[in-house]
Amino acid sequence: MTKNEQLLAYIRGIAAGTKISVRQIANDMGVSEGTAYKAIKDAELLQLVSTMPRVGTIRVEKVEKKGIQKLTFAEVLHIVEGTVLGGHEGIYKTFNKFVIGAMAINEIRRYLSEGDMLIVGNRDDAHKLALDKDCAVLITGGFSCKDEIKKMANEKKLPIISTSHDTFTVTSILNRDIHERLIRKEILMAEDIMPRDLYYIEGTQNVGDLKKKIRETGHSRFPVVDNHKHVIGIVTPRDIAEAQDDDLIKNLMTQEPITILRDTSVAYISHIMIWEGIEMIPLVEGKKLIGVITRQDVIRGLKYIRSQPHLGETFEDMLLDHFKIEETENGIRLLGDITPMMLNELGIASAGVMVMLMSAAGSFAIKKEKQLDSVIDSFMVYFIRPLQMENTIEIHAEIINMGRKFYKVDISVKHQKEIVSKAMMSAKILKK
C-alpha cells in the first residue's frame, strides 16, 4: 500500500462530521504537510471530505445512490444560495423533511419532528421552537436571527441558514432539485453493475500464467496491471494467439485501454462498447483497477433499468407522454399534438424537440424489430417545416435496411397528410 493509500485509509476511518486539517493528518501519520494536503484533495475527489468557507474541511459520508438520497444542509445551502448564521458544525448532516412555517406556532409544533428543517421568515418564536425540537432552520426573505438563536444552534450543531429568496421561490427550487435527484437515482452507474469478483493479470506474468487463469476463471479477456495495481493494458486471446508460454504479457498486451469511473452511466458504457467494438472495460479509481465490466454486465443492467418503476420524468418522458405509440408493418407510428412545452420563443415547434421525437421514434422501431438496445450512429435531417401549437402530427419510423450490426430507419412527420419533416437515422446494435 502506497503512502497516499495509507492516508486515504486513515481518512476513511475518521468519524463523519469530524473536522480535519493538513497539520493534524501530517502529525498523526508522520508525513509532510504537502503529502497530507495531496491526500485531502484526493479524499475530496472521492467524496470522503468536503471543504467549506468559514467551516473548514469536514469528514463526510459518501452519499450512496441506493434508495432516494437525503439532502444535507450543505446541499440546501448551495441550492438556495444562502448564508450560515449558526450551527456550522452540523452543516453536513442529512435531514428527513421540510416543514413550511406559514401557520400558527402551535400548528408548526404539530408538524415538526427531530431531524426536520423548518422553512420560515422573520419569526423568532418559530426559530426557537425548531431548535427545541432538534430541527434546523432555513430563514427566507434575507432576514437574520437573534444572537441567542445563533448560540443555541451552535450548541446543538444544527444549522441556521438565511437566503434572500422568498418562501415560494425556495420551495420551488428545492422541489425542482429533488425531482432532478429522482431522475439521477434512476440512472444506473458502473458501480451498480460491477461484479464483486475482480480478475486481472500482471504485466510481469507470462502467457502460461494467462492460460491457467483462463481455465480457472472461464474469462478470456483480462485487464493488465503493474505492481501498484494501475491499469496498463488489456490482453485477449487474439494477443497471445502466436505467443510462447514464457512470453511476458506486457510485451503482448494492447496498451492504453479505455477505462471508466464508478459514476460512468451504464448507457454511456454501452455506447462505448458499441462504438469501439470492445467486450470488456476496466473500472478505475485514479489509475488503480477496482473492477471489470463486460458486455454481459451492461446488457443485464439495461434490462434491470427497464424493469424498474420510474420516479422522476425526464424531458423526453414528458414529451412522449403526449403521444400514442402504434406498431406498423415495418416500424412504428407516434400520434400526438404540439403542446406549449414544445414551442420555441417564436411560438412554433422547436427544431430540437422535433429531432428528439424523430430519434425516439427511430429507436422504438428498432426495438420493436430486434428487442435489442441501439446507439444512434448518424442522424440526418432533410427539412423541418414550422408547426403551430395544437397541430396534430404523425411520426412514422420505418426500417429500410437491416444488417448484422446496423439498421437504417426512414422517419417522416406528417400534418394533415402532408410531410412536414423528414430524416434518416442509422444505428448500431448492442449484442451479446
From TrEMBL:
Keywords: CBS domain. InterPro entries: CBS_dom (IPR000644), CBS_dom_sf (IPR046342), Diverse_CBS-Domain (IPR051257), DRTGG (IPR010766), HotDog_dom_sf (IPR029069), Ser_kin/Pase_Hpr-like_N_sf (IPR028979), Thioestr_dom (IPR006683). It comes from the Bacteria. Residues 194-251, 253-314 form the CBS domain. SUPFAM superfamilies: CBS-domain pair, HprK N-terminal domain-like, Thioesterase/thiol ester dehydrase-isomerase. Pfam families: 4HBT (PF03061), CBS (PF00571), DRTGG (PF07085). This is CBS domain-containing protein. It comes from Geosporobacter ferrireducens. The lineage of its organism: Bacteria, Bacillati, Bacillota, Clostridia, Peptostreptococcales.
